[in-house]
Amino acid sequence: MVGRMREIAKRPAFTGLLIFIAGAVYYLSFARYGLNLWDEGGIYIGGMRTLQGQRVYVDFFGYPPGGYWLVELVFRWFGFQMLPVRWLYAGLTALFGVLAYHIARRIMPGVYTAAAVLLVMSAPAVYYQRFYGLMFLFCAWAAIVCLEDRRNWPWLAVSAATACLFKAEVTLVALPVFAWVVWRSFGFEKKGWVAFLAIIVACAAFLKGGMVAAFFAAAKGMYQVWGNPFPVPWKGYQGSEFGFFAFLENLLFYAPFATAAALGALAWRERNAPLAALAYFQLMAMCLVILRAGFDNLIRCLPLFFIVAVYLACRAVKTAAPPRRVAAIAALAAVWGLYMADLNWKNGYYAGSIGAVREFDSEITRGRAKGIIAGPQDAAYVGQMTDWIDLATQKDDRIFAMPLNPLWYYLSGRMNPTAYDWVLPGMFWNPSDEEKLIAQMAAARPPLIILVDIAIDNREDRRLTAYVPGLIAWTVAHYRYSGRIGYFQMWSRK
Hints:
The chain is mainly alpha-helical. It is 63% helix and 5% strand. It has helices at residues 2-9, 12-28, 42-51, 66-78, 82-104, 110-122, 131-148, 154-166, 168-186, 188-207, 211-226, 244-251, 255-270, 273-285, 287-291, 295-301, 303-319, 322-346, 376-392, 407-412, 431-444, 464-467, 469-478; strands at residues 362-363, 373-374, 399-402, 448-451, 479-485, 488-493. The longest helix is centred in the C-terminal third of the chain and has 25 residues, at 322-346. The protein starts with a helix and ends with a strand.
């Protein structure tokens, strides 16, 4: 049996296929568990818009079009049900394990590779947020295989183009290191024009129209609007109780910076280009949580960290003196087991793990969310809200929901009359932007507005009345309060 496993390990393509199949089966087993009334509807309303011929960035504000195209494809084939979309995303998530395996096997032995792959697959993030981690894995793998063999350079183009379609910011992060990879792979003294052209194209794309200054200004502005402090390791974070597992999670906010620095130092000392590329991508992935610290954002940043952390553990074991090696392995195995337990048992839905099964127990039995298993209160909200919308509007009517509830458009089948499927801090830097939104509302006058007046992150400057006062004033002037369902205020046209 051991010999057979070794033979399989020598065929990485076959091993990758097995990982993909196992991962797809694993993710499909709990794909219907969990529901987020706030963020989840974005991909669905985007898919509905693209199905109608609308274009992101032109007809509506949103994310890169790749995710919307996938949802549109599911809608065309299977109708407007939520479960088939989740099944597609579950299948795609299996690529996490494949890419993690093909990165890890190049730098560490099989048992450590398996440990890294299991960590990566244990916490890929909520299904509609997985493209960030997946694109970082893809770009890091492409850089490493190109450094191994310059004939693999087309993968740089494929990964950059794919990231453009799903997470454009990953492409921006990848361009400098891709230019460096091309330089290293082809050699300036041999084919200098290739490296020179790649760097010129990358720099021109990035510098055009003062993009560097605009990029950093946008990052600074986003942090000012959305930034949250990192947790204190020995305290609860964002309302959670403090405990041993909370302490482990708090450490995850800080450990990736240490591992990236350690791997970068190793790469410099050993002149190891693949390790340098891996350290770069692992560090850059943390930019998201720097801009907005929170557990759901943190999980998206960690796939490469899990690989790097296990690799550094492998190096530590190898360098340990033989009498201490067994103790080091036992300690590292214990830490690995604790994090596996935390990510799979304690956390579920936001970690994207099987732990979601223990968090939700109420099945939705009708409508587009039929078959989804949510919390009792959320399941009740889905039924009550869709019933209210059906009674208050006609099928061809449009509704408007704010600040962040695009799920109601999808579940009710009512479109948004504006280009804004969410109304959040930072979207209206210029007062004219809010005026444009009000003008779109005034032109359409939807019969129903759904409003949630909350201070996001418990900050009053992140309350609707603080950042879109004109829109709130227009709503009060032209609509009357009709009642509420939980958080959701229902406003009918006067």
